[in-house]
Amino acid sequence: MSQPASAVRAVIGAVLTGQVRPFGPKGVPSGIAKTAADDRIRVTALGLEGDAQGDPRHHGGPEKALHHYAFDHYPAWREELAAQGAQGNGVLDVAGAFGENLSTTGLTEAAVCIGDRFRLGSALVEVSQAR
């Protein structure tokens, strides 16, 4: 069972946006490449201003307006890559490797459930589905 949202202690480490560009060997249009914003960004019903998705069938829209991923998970992914003998090339040293718009610490699946609501500045966001 998750903690009440009021009991969750989280820190937003980065707010990230990106544009659609070719991705992978086939050049599939994707908005997965995100960079951290230096300034405030407006949150709309469809996501962050200045952010784009390459495949609107599976990304974006009012039920998937923001993609959150806990930075708390990054160390485990670095260990997984190392265990497989893969080089991460630093991609897992900073937030955004999983195409997330919000990178946090302290806001993992252990503390959050579908339907939980959080205040992010003046925006009220609700967890609508898992990825």
Automatic annotation (TrEMBL):
It comes from Cupriavidus necator. PANTHER family: PROTEIN YIIM. It holds the Pfam family MOSC. This is MOSC domain-containing protein. Transmembrane segments: none annotated. Residues 35-131 form the MOSC domain. It comes from the Bacteria. GO terms for molecular function: catalytic activity; molybdenum ion binding; pyridoxal phosphate binding.
